[in-house]
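Why does residue order matter? Because the sequence determines the fold. Keep that principle in mind as you read this record.
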Amino acid sequence: MYLLKTKDNNALYNDVKAVIFDLDGTLAYTLEDLRDAMNHAMRTFGWQEKTLDEILMAINYGGRQFVKNCMPVDLSSDEKLAAEAYKAYYGNYSSFAIRKTVLYDGMEKLVDKLCSMGIPVCLSTNKEINLACRIMDKLLPGKFAYRVGDGTVGRDGRRFPTKPDPSGALLVCEELGISPENVLYIGDSIIDMKTAKNAGMRSIWVSWGYSKREMIPEEFAPDVTANEPGDIERYILDVKKIFSERN
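Structure:
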């Protein structure tokens, strides 16, 4: 069963008109592919390869920062070297994009349910947008109303900053014509919880992802905690019932 931060916040019962998912650690388990691509770059430069635990500590801030976080500390400030290492990482990752990556159990069923309810399903990730789209086109083809990620460019030609900047999430609202208060932002990390708060959206933290709850300070505590994908469906159905009764 899902858990609410508080039951005394009426905003938790605003109608749900769209849902935004994070990718890595929320929709899909991606760690092994990330590790394999990163270790290709580490080997290319003669650096120590990374374990899954080290990959966990380095992700969430976009591909370029991910590479810097994995480089030897005394070399990570060398921008030219970091760019070369990123090229090695990205080149390898983009050559396959998905080998060991899989959806979490119950996630496909949840997304199908949301689509059947007429709720737009969207994606917000710090992964390179072309890689994110390739992965989701393989795992959840045709399910997303809108997708934003590292490299997304607006109509004005401006490249959107990565999370926790809310620009990408707010672009989704703009494109769908939906107020942030009617959007659920679902993720597994402090970055996602910050993004939701910065965008004025309700946050759902998923316990099956890459971050432990104690890693999220109370300032960014999630509005809802989901322990399985079905909890997200249950929360939305409860919200819609309460919203209908009140209106």
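The mean pLDDT is 95.
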